[in-house]
Write a structure and sequence with these properties.
The complex is a heterodimer of chains A (about 80) and B (about 240). By secondary structure, chain A is mostly helical. Helices cover about 80% and strands about 0% of the residues of chain A. In chain A, helix 2 runs antiparallel to helix 3. Chain B has about 240 residues and is mainly α. In chain B, helix 1 packs antiparallel against helix 5, helix 3 runs parallel beside helix 8 and helix 7 crosses helix 8. Chain B starts with a helix and ends in a 6-residue tail after the last helix. The chains are: A mainly alpha (about 80), B mainly alpha (about 240). The interface between A and B is large, with 43 and 54 residues.
Amino acid sequence: MNFLRAAGGRVLGLFVSDWVQSGVVLVIIAAGWFGVTKLGAPALVALVVLLAGQMVWFAQAEARRTVRPSPRQSPS
Amino acid sequence: MGQQIFIFGAAFLGSAVEATEALTIVLAVGLTRGWRAPILGAAAALVLLGLLVIFFGQLIVTTVPEAALKLLVGTLLLLFGLRWLHKAVLRTAGVVAMHDEERAYEETVSGLRDAVPRRDWVGFILALKGVFLEGLEVVFIVIAVGGAGHGFPAAIAGGLVAAAVVAAAGVVVRRPLARVPENTLKYAVGLILTSLGTFWAAEGMGASWPLDFVSILALVAVYFVASRLAVALIRRPAIA
């Protein structure tokens, strides 16, 4: 049972480390889908810029959250 | 041809990272409790993982329409790649410590120094669990890049070659592969998978990329610049 739970957690963890970030990515993709349908190629540029921008934003957010009293080992 | 090489490379690099982590567990168990049980456990895990690739690979390729498959796999690949990229950015910037195979190895070894019975179920289960759980990421990478890109043979070959290379290196050095630049590999694979995910998700939406597959290189460049910007903005003194 523990093994199945660990496997399930690992599968979910493949895609989600921060629920908010994953939600934002899904919203961007949904908006991109709508935009590509209506606008075509120009929407691709916006899609890529938004995806790259959220990566920078969430990295900054995590860096702000992470106080470093002692070095911690990050999981794989 | 270029797409097949890209798929092979993505599967190879992604699988090599996870195979290194699985090898660390098998080495720790083997060197402390003997080799028979962990080798059997690792073999059983590899069989299970192979069955997953065949089952899910066939299932999604034969039952899901191509556009939906590209959108679904692209989205999952994007989430997966961004997770690796996010972690690599934080490690590169010194916000979190680098993953240390030597330390992971020592921690596993220190927990295994008990008397070993003739049938070592602990060693078997530890190796099975370690290889299977680390291998799940390999299974996803192989199915995702192989399925959406019509390149299952190339993706499976990439995964198998990576596993063989890492296993051979483990046999030779009999130590954790601490010199594998894991963060750099994860950084590169994160960039590639995020770019492939974006490419396929957009194709699944019905978009056509200029220059077709070559656009992936431009996507890699965009995400690389964004990740370096993130590193520059949050950089801290390196953690040992």
